[in-house]
Each structure stands twice: as C-alpha cells, then as structure tokens.
TrEMBL record:
One Gene Ontology biological process: DNA transposition
Listed name of the protein: IS1182 family transposase
Organism: Endozoicomonas montiporae CL-33
Chain spans, region Disordered: 186-214
GO MF term set: DNA binding; transposase activity
Domain Transposase IS4-like: 232-300
Length: 314
C-alpha cells in the first residue's frame, strides 16, 4: 500500500552522538587504537600560556589533519565542509552536533606557520609508532623499504639550469678510513690525505617549486617530482619511517641514515631488510654488512644495446 511520510523535522530530539556512529566505522577503530593525549604536552612550548587569543586546540588540529589523510580529502575547505555535516567525523574530533568548526583558513595557517622549524610532526609520527610497538604490532626485526614518486605541482617546462655539487664524500671517507686501518694492520703508514675534488653537475631547477627535483628514470614519467621513501615493519605492515627527498635524489642516498635513525629512536634489533632494486649499491651492501644485517635486494637486469649479447649469454 502506498504510504506518504510527512516531511516535518521541526521536533526537538535528545540524541547521543556516540549512537549515531556505526560500530564498524574506520574512525572507531582508529580512536580505539591510538591515544592522542600525548599531543598537548608535546606542543605546549609553541603556545603562550597566559597571553593572546585562545588558539585552535592542537589535538583537534592534528586529528583534523589525520582525518583528511585517512579519507583522502586533499582540499582543506572541502574537509571542513565534510566535518560540518558528517556525524562520524564530529564524533572522532570530539565535537557535538551543534559545535562550530574551525575556519578553513585557520586550519591552513596553523599547518603552514605554527610548527615551522620544529620536529613536531616527526615526533607525533614517532609517538604513534611507539604505541604500535607497545601493542606488539611492530617488532623491528624485519624491515621493508621502497620509494614512490609524487608529482610536484610544477610545470616541467618552467625551469632554470643551475650548477649543483655532486658529492659522495661520506662513502669515500669510509673507504679511506678502511684503507688506512688495513695499512696500519699490515704495518704500513697511512696514506697522506688527498686533495678533495669537488664534482659538479648541471641540473634543472623548477622556478615554481625549487625544492622538487627533475626525475629521469626508465619507464617513469619525466618532470619535477618528490620521492616518498617508506619503511614498513614485517610483522603487521606498520609504517615506521617516512622520508621525502627531491625526485632527482637516488633511492640509496638517504637509506642508511634513516635505518640508523629507526634503530636509535625505537630500539629496533634489525636482523634483515628487504629492498627494491633501486637500493642496490656498493655503499648500502657494505653498510648492511657492517651492521650485521641480512639484506634481500631486488635484481635489476642491466641495460644493453639492441642486437648485442647480454653478459650472461657468453
């Protein structure tokens, strides 16, 4: 039988916002897994305790940022519009149905200016990883690392050519030290220090986004990119490190430093690592051997001229 429901919504209702969010909602799982109470003590030095206008609550601010990443909302204005009407978002942020939400420009200015020249974002990331470790979700015994390219918001045709320093000094210093130790062990005098030679090369620098790098790789688009280097723990695939470099920086350059940082920060006892073929270099192989870490690194078939035999075919 046809039924007609009157469209009247003028009645007052007493509701509990907690009952309006489904039990299996992703934000319920995040709220249960992560304790955000550490944020206030972490950032209190960046606020004046007794002067000025009341600032945007820092816990609310960072939860809004996390919410945007989780839900794939890249526009801050769109994110604030979604928070205005989405009950689950309001519940996750600790807002009631009638609470006002921050303005998009307030969120933007806090993100861009509030924590400049500080490591607050890194510390928040580390604290969440430490919570995962305490819950036995990450052990730090086997780590996997790879990088992916992120397109910069820059036209590849708008650039200038500059001279940049091409240096592998840290690795060469390690080789010189190894040679000196070997000579001393065999009763020989160390070699005199050689004259440092600074190598330079010409690179393209974007006039729109100078921090990006012009990437030229096989089977990859050319243009200005960033490289997002990520390390995951082999136990539950928890991301334990994120590091961003310009797109023209080789994968292997920051790897050992980031590995050492994880060992220091989280007290990891790394026994093995899995790496993409882009990380295959002499420096990384030696670094892993010096650290007594078993490395499993992908193999990349070398390029050769068409019509010529490969080395393995001889």
């Amino acid at each position: 039988m046809l039924n007609h429901r009157p469209q009247t919504q003028s009645s007052l209702e007493f509701v509990c916002i907690n009952e309006l969010v489904p039990e299996d909602h992703l934000l319920r799982k995040v709220d249960k897994a992560i304790d955000f109470d550490f944020i206030h003590p972490l950032v209190e030095d960046h606020y004046c305790p007794d002067n000025g206008r009341p600032a945007l609550d820092p816990t609310l601010f960072f939860k809004i940022l996390i919410l945007g990443y989780l839900m794939g909302v890249r526009s801050e204005r769109q994110l604030m519009r979604d928070i205005q009407v989405n009950v689950a978002y309001r519940w996750f942020l600790g807002l009631n149905l009638t609470d006002s939400i921050p303005d998009a420009s307030t969120l933007s200015q806090n993100r861009r200016r509030r924590f400049n020249d500080s490591n607050v974002y890194q510390e928040i990331f580390d604290q969440i990883v430490l919570q995962a470790i305490r819950r036995k979700l990450a052990g730090g015994h086997i780590l996997y690392t790879d990088s992916t390219h992120l397109k910069a918001n820059a036209n590849k045709n708008k650039h200038q050519r500059i001279i940049a320093k091409a240096s592998v000094k840290s690795y060469l210093d390690e080789l010189d030290q190894a040679v000196a130790e070997d000579r001393i062990a065999h009763g020989k005098k160390p070699l005199p220090p050689g004259k440092e030679k600074v190598e330079t090369k010409e690179i393209k620098q974007s006039t729109t986004d100078p921090d990006s790098g012009y990437m030229v790789r096989d089977n990859k688009p050319r243009g200005f990119f960033y490289l997002d280097h990520r390390t995951t723990d082999g136990q539950c695939n928890i991301i334990t490190d994120v590091h961003v470099t310009p797109g023209n920086v080789h994968d292997s350059r920051p790897y050992l430093d980031r590995l050492d940082r994880q060992v220091r920060r989280f007290d990891f006892k790394v026994s093995a690592v899995g790496l993409d073929a882009g990380y295959m270099s002499t420096a990384i192989c030696k670094g892993l051997e010096d650290r007594s870490i078993y490395g499993v690194i992908g193999y990349r078939r070398p390029n050769h001229k068409k019509g010529y035999f490969r080395k393995l075919e001889y």
